Amino acid sequence: MSSSNTASKRKEEGNELFKNHDYNGAIEKFTLAIAEDATNAIFYANRAQCYLYQKKYNKVIDDTKKATELQRDYYKAWLRMADAYTELNMHPEAIEAYQKAIELLSRQRVSQPGMLKDAKIALERAREKVMNPWTMSLDTLKALARAYDIPVPKITSRKQIEPFKNTLFRNPKWGTEPLVRVLFIPQSQTEPMRELEIEQANFGREAKRLIGCRLIDTAILYSADNLAQARGNPYGIGYGRLHTLYEAVMDDSAIAKRPFNKRAAELLHRPKTFGPILMMKTTCIKTTDDVLHDKMKDVLAWEHVSIDELQSGKFKNMRKEYVDVYGNNEGGVMIEIGGPPVPGQVPTMVSLHIGS
Question: Which pLDDT score, from 0 to 100, does residue 346 have?
Fold first, then answer.
């Protein structure tokens, strides 16, 4: 019997064991089939289905990744991958896998018409979980903890996530408006730079006082979301993904009225920098596919930004990467101020026009 025939026989044996709920036996048969023919995507996808029933989600992901590498249009493998990512609260990955499956199901004639409908429902449920505090990803929870300077323990297993959530949600700071953190770079080259924390309700007024102007503008120094869009992804970094945004807040008419700020220009790798600067770093989360969406609505945390960070090679490379793509087109954005989500709710964002 040829290797191909032997592999097919092992697959059929595995299918029968799967029907009888003998998942370990089915896994053994599919593994033998793969040993005979490692190029058949069905073997990996079938074994993944067994792992899915056993709640071995990382193994599901490994096998479905292999299956989709071998056969890019294998929608069943994409659906199983998405289901596994959902169970692990890896929502951005789940959403992308559901989107791929829906794209394939829409193009192909599928014998089960309800499959496309079910995939669309699963996609919407995955989107809803992104900002639900009880189902959001660990990285999102960590960002929210940083917003309040709440210590984040070292988490090495899924069992540790629930206690961390309970600690976070019970903290007195949870549900209140986090402070806006900035690094103030004065016009004077001798005046010390300062890390400041400003209440959201007072940010516009305090920023204008610090900078000494009537209107404030912002320049985007780095945006991972913008870069992803510029490189061909029409939806940017992807729904549910965290990304970093660096901005410089300045006098709206600084370039015409203010002296050159040499220290700020060197720190920010931005030659045309004039007047005092408020440097901001935010961690954001993508919660829409709308390219016109105001990115600042998705702020999770105003992060601490230090002089050491701006002097690092990492920040220098980020600026170079951004300038190589966008040049001097820094596109200011409206700053949106608002608190993070509270359990069972999505965040309510309050628009603050900092030039008003």
Answer: 34
